[in-house]
Amino acid sequence: MRVQDLRRYVKTTEKLVVPADVASTTQGSAFLRKLPLRLQRYIVKKASRTNPYMSFVVEPYAVFLAFEIVDIEAAERLLPPHYSLFPSAMFGDTAKRPCAIVSAFNVHTSVFWGSRVEFYLIAQNCKTGLLSWIIDEYESNTHSYDPSQGFIGPSTSHSVVTTSYAGEVIVDVASEKSKNSLVLVADLKNGVMTELDQRLWVEGNLSVDYGGELQQCTKPFSLVFDPGEMAQALKLPLEGISLCTNTFGKGMLNPKPFEAACFPYAQHFVTTSTPTATTMRTAEDLEQAVSELNEKLSGTR
Questions:
Q1: Are 206 and 223 in contact (CB under 8 A)?
Q2: What residues contact residue 129 under an 8 Å CB cut-off, 6+ apart?
Q3: What is the pTM (predicted TM-score) of this model?
Q4: What total of structural domains would you count in the chain?
Q5: Residue 64 belongs to domain spanning
């Protein structure tokens, strides 16, 4: 993608995030949470007709840990129908294996602003053949919406995802409603920019779905982004990861990660307001979608 097109897309996605609008949505979600789930889904579907797109900007220093799955049967039970676990790795130079990924990041979007920890299984969609990220659990310090639970309030008792001048990412997140917890310090000083596995990071983000208790007969949805934002990330030496607590996938995963990644720049996504399947399959499809969204959305603000 040309640099000027990238810059235009970055500005377009950032302009779609208006703090005053996010604040209004946050206030409104408290009321919407009281409504029956069926009515919540109807309201979201109706609203998406007039505002079908949501900007989703992951702020710099998002950290990802990959863990090998040791209890295959337990992991398979968390997958939605028509998916199977598929050996993967975050970086192109790492041996692939059945895996789960835990991420921690700060994010600002068109409708919420805060920090999140997400737990994914990496699987293949047996119908489309696409590698897929399956969201099985998440925790957030701000309101959220997913098709299974509808609108929900903050789920954490505390949520720290930040950096220090010592060159560290510091994560300390605990759920208020469950035993979920992630506590780690990642030393960035010896990280090396390394090529990412393109099938996982490009193709996989074109097929995102919900698993575990978040399943709700939804179709996989796609994120729109410049594939260049998924070309490289900092590969962090595992000896620089101090993982104090991780309850995500407990008993199902090797407790020690086999990879650690950190993105030292923001990532700019656009997705649909409600999960919607697309026909995109390649980096070229993404670049075309970015070009079309640049034209469609650049005049909205």
A1: yes
A2: none
A3: 0.92
A4: 1
A5: 3-297
